[in-house]
UniProtKB/TrEMBL annotation:
It comes from Paraconexibacter sp. AEG42_29. Keywords: Cell membrane, Glycosyltransferase, Membrane, Transferase, Transmembrane, Transmembrane helix. GO terms for cellular component: plasma membrane. Residues 17-190 form the Glycosyltransferase subfamily 4-like N-terminal domain. The chain crosses the membrane at residues 428-449, 469-490, 545-569, 581-603, 646-666, 672-690, 697-714, 720-743. This is Glycosyltransferase. The keyword Membrane applies. It is a multi-pass membrane protein. Gene3D superfamilies: Glycogen Phosphorylase B. It holds the Pfam family Glyco_transf_4. GO terms for molecular function: glycosyltransferase activity. It comes from the Bacteria.
Length: 784
């Protein structure tokens, strides 16, 4: 067979290896083993501090530079597709690649991820050599792919004589956004010399071994797996080994690490050993996977998988044969699938046999044969006969493969199940809403600044009195402490058997305020509940009751809003004739209380059920409403109920005085007095129910302007200045009190954010013929 000189072009850093780099490295080794002359053109980041600074503090792997690597310089880490893409961003990388391709005497150039900037993107139009492109990415993002097409991606990709996609999902992306013809050639896997034999059924009581291989990035779904495992180990003996994840990553989500071993980064031999010894690989990715090399690596070791039902993974896993697919992001479904396999060792063994057989399809010898065929076909494409045809190809208006052009086509979504379609639809609506809110905010700010004048706003800010602003800050901090006193009384009533200290409630309150001030969603509530639950007992057992106690504070907050509303309405003639609204405020807390107390009775198990799923939902709703009612136990105790009520309403009163103090600071107390302070506090809390931005920045100021200007005649400049300072006081309160609390708790902001996002424990109903169990003994140490 004729030997070829081949250039493999990669946009990604060699020393921050991901799936594409691993694929290129293995392909190069296979081709070199067959006698071909191969060079890999890829960026290379040395192991130094500058590399860490360019990649958000992450050091590159200390990998030796192979003889076949042509280094193209450093890269920068860019967030993309739920992970980080380490791409060359300097003109020198392009210059080095061009120089190598011009002088290297190559027969064919294989560009990996040709749409990714900058190296591969430039290669498409800077060389006359036969070009082959492999598309590794699956994406349904209309914005990013549409932008790439807008700046010329379709014409550049027409330079390719052969297009390869690693999966049907990756081919879908290419056809949908860029057009063209695609050969599906999967990522390869190295089969071990000694083929694995499926594990025999384990002895009774011996734990099922579960493996996870991947980075601790959001789209890999590690928090989903940890929550599922937390529930699973109560039902079947199980051990979880994590490759690519360290103990700190586990501690961000899981309080009790029994049965979990975190190995961190390991070499390939250790990874293969973990996969071979495992009974099942868990791959709970949330999306963005075009293929899933970790699945074929598990198959090569004779290990079946439980994976998310997402495009890319469906191209690898045969449902029920060599793996099980579960709804993405559903920790309960993942736990149930793992439990079913744990209770059925013979099914695991049959799936392991099927996985071993399935791995043959992805073996590197077969994959390399298909890639070499693509190279030969690209080289064999004739040069266009006429100068006009050559110019059309060179400019990208004609396709280099000599076949009729296939335009981009709107294709049916690969998100086949209703849950995924609904999730994708909600995500799209959120993105659209965020864009619209951003545009509206920029436009409103522009017109407001034009109307008010920046100089007038500046004058208003400068003229405010610093001592009064500091007094307002002190009052706001005091109100947080008083809120913690109220919550402590509520917690004592709800958890009579637990030792709940005032410091527990104070820590939770302070950290919750900090999270509310720095995140766009209402993660402050679950964050503070999580902090208290981990302090007073087993979080899984105490968390539902702690969450229920938040309802008591919510009811008291409604009462406080009612008082503020009455004050506001009684001091402003603008609201005359609108007193019917007061009836709504008065009825609201009573309606909520009745709903909470009556819900368990309405959801009794004797009601008709249409399906098992409906029954499960009703059961969960009954449990939740009962937990919420337990949180209202404070109102059964005259002493604790009085403490909670007085303290919670007192905290609102202190905030009210703080708002008034700021009016004094701006010299507005004669024009807008105590009633205006009540109106401002009322407005900013009502608009914060669904915050659009961290601390509701923008909406907060708009509420202040609407109230002070529309109802009290304060100038736009003074009202906006007041809104800016009031929010600054609230954020300063969160930072001044929340940051020390976070440090005392021994957690980072990222820890609390992840735990708040995945705070709900997973509950599994007992399987038929099995009894729930608890693993005894001390918690396992995390191997670092």
């Amino acid at each position: 067979m004729h030997s070829m000189r081949i250039a493999l072009v990669s946009p990604y850093s060699w020393t921050y290896p991901g799936g594409v780099t691993r694929h290129i490295e293995s392909l190069a080794a296979e081709l070199i083993g067959r006698g071909h002359d191969v060079r890999v053109l890829a960026p290379y980041d040395p192991c130094d501090r500058l590399s860490a600074r360019l990649h958000r503090g992450h050091m590159p792997e200390d990998r030796p530079m192979p003889d076949y690597l042509v280094p193209l310089g450093r890269t920068v880490g860019f967030p993309a597709n739920g992970a980080v893409s380490n791409l060359a961003a300097s003109p020198s990388a392009i210059a080095r690649a061009r120089r190598e391709l011009d002088t290297g005497g190559y027969d064919v150039v294989h560009v990996h991820e040709p749409v990714a900037p900058l190296v591969g993107w430039d290669t498409l139009c800077s060389t006359d050599l036969p070009l082959v492109g492999t598309f590794h990415c699956y994406s349904d993002n209309v914005v990013s792919n549409g932008f790439a097409s807008l700046i010329g991606a379709r014409r550049r990709l027409n330079q390719l004589k052969v297009r390869i996609a690693v999966s049907d999902a990756a081919a879908w992306t290419g056809k949908r956004f860029y057009g063209g013809r695609y050969r599906v050639i999967p990522n390869g896997v190295q089969l071990p010399a000694d083929r694995p034999r499926p594990q025999l059924a384990r002895n009774e009581g011996e734990p099922m071994r579960i493996a996870f291989v991947g980075q601790s990035v959001e789209r890999k779904g590690l928090p989903i797996l940890l929550r599922a495992f937390e529930a699973l180990r109560e039902h079947v003996p199980a051990e979880l080994t994590l490759v690519g994840v360290d103990g700190d990553d586990v501690a961000q989500v899981l309080e009790d690490s029994r049965g979990v071993t975190a190995l961190g980064k390991v070499d390939d031999a250790t990874k293969d050993r973990v996969l071979r010894e495992a009974d099942v690989l868990a791959a709970p990715s949330l999306g963005g996977e075009s293929f899933g090399m970790v699945l074929t690596e598990a198959f090569a070791q004779g290990t079946p998988v439980v994976a998310s039902d997402i495009p890319g993974y469906r191209d690898v896993v045969r449902e029920g044969v060599d793996g099980v697919l579960v709804a993405r992001g559903d920790a309960t479904a993942l736990a149930e699938a793992l439990r079913d396999l744990g209770l059925d060792p013979e099914r695991r063994r049959a799936m392991a046999l099927a996985a071993t057989e399935r791995a043959e399809r992805f073996a590197w010898p077969q994959v390399a044969d298909e890639v070499l065929t693509a190279y030969r076909d690209a080289i064999a494409v004739p040069v266009p006969a006429t100068r006009r045809a050559r110019l059309a190809v060179r400019s990208g208006f004609a396709v280099a493969d000599g076949l009729p052009r296939v335009p981009a086509t709107r294709l049916a979504s690969l998100e086949v199940d209703a849950a995924n379609r609904s999730r994708a639809g909600r995500a799209a609506l959120r993105r659209i809403a965020m864009v619209l809110a951003l545009v509206a905010g920029i436009a409103a700010s522009f017109f407001a600044l034009r109307r008010i004048g920046i100089d007038r706003i500046g004058d208003s800010l400068v003229s405010s009195s610093p001592p009064w602003v500091l007094a307002a800050l002190g009052l706001m901090c005091l109100s947080m402490i008083v809120r913690a006193v109220a919550w402590h009384a509520i917690l004592k009533a709800a958890l009579p058997q637990a030792s709940v200290r005032r410091s527990d409630a104070l820590q939770g309150t302070m950290i919750g305020v900090l999270m509310s001030a720095t995140l766009p969603a209402r993660l402050g509530e679950p964050a503070r509940a999580m902090i208290v639950a981990r302090r007073v007992g087993r979080p899984k057992e105490t968390l539902p009751v702690v969450v229920g106690t938040l309802v008591s504070q919510t009811l008291l907050n409604i009462v406080a809003l009612l008082i503020l509303g009455i004050t506001m309405f009684s001091t402003v003639h603008y609201f005359d004739g609108q007193h019917a609204a007061l009836v709504v405020f008065a009825v609201a807390p009573i309606a909520v209380l009745l709903a909470v107390l009556v819900a368990p009775a309405l959801l009794r198990s004797g009601l008709p059920k249409r399906s098992e799923r409906v029954a499960r939902v009703l059961k969960q709703a009954r449990a939740a409403s009962t937990q919420v009612r337990a949180g209202l136990a404070v109102f059964k105790s005259p002493r604790l109920g009085a403490t909670a009520t007085v303290a919670q309403l007192g905290a609102w009163g202190i905030q009210w005085v703080s708002c008034y103090t700021l009016l004094v600071a701006f010299g507005l107390d004669q024009q807008a007095g105590i009633g205006a302070a009540a109106a401002v506090l009322f407005a900013v809390n009502v608009t914060a129910v669904l915050p659009a931005t961290p601390s509701n920045v923008g909406v907060f100021q708009a509420a202040c302007v609407a109230v002070l200007t529309g109802a009290y005649g304060v100038s736009y400049a003074d009202a906006l200045g007041y809104g800016i300072i009031l929010q600054a006081v609230e954020i300063a309160t969160a930072i001044v009190m929340g940051t020390p609390a976070l440090l005392r708790e021994g957690l980072t902001w990222k820890d609390v954010r992840l735990r708040a996002m995945h705070v709900s424990p997973v509950e599994l109903a007992p399987a038929a013929g099995a009894q729930p169990r608890r693993q005894g003994g001390e918690a396992y140490e995390l191997d670092m």
